[in-house]
Automatic annotation (TrEMBL):
This is Short chain dehydrogenase. InterPro entries: NAD(P)-bd_dom_sf (IPR036291), SDR_fam (IPR002347). Keywords: Oxidoreductase. The keyword Oxidoreductase applies. Belongs to the short-chain dehydrogenases/reductases (SDR) family. GO terms for molecular function: oxidoreductase activity. It comes from Parahalioglobus pacificus. It holds the Pfam family adh_short. The keyword Oxidoreductase applies.
């Protein structure tokens, strides 16, 4: 397995609409890392979209259809994720 870059193109943060997840999004995006911010509540996701380097992803990790849609959205974005 090839070594992963310490400087990823993009990252996915789940649970990004509150608490530790939200703070992680804030810190990573402030460092210039592109963040796909996953969460369930659209109103909260809309607020994250206003941040630099952040794209919201509607994602409930307990629903396979949400996971598939999130993967498709991220792949369409062309930024890639470590390990993909």
């Amino acid at each position: 397995m090839p070594a992963q870059s310490a400087d990823p193109k993009a990252v996915l943060v789940t649970g990004s609409t509150s608490g530790i997840g939200k703070r992680t999004v804030e810190l990573l995006s402030s460092e210039g890392i592109y963040v796909y911010a996953g969460g369930r509540r659209q109103a909260d996701l809309d607020m994250l979209d206003a941040m630099d380097n952040v794209e919201s992803v509607r994602l409930d990790v307990t629903k396979p259809e949400d996971i598939a849609a999130a993967v498709a959205q991220i792949e369409k974005g062309g930024k890639g994720l470590p390990g993909r």
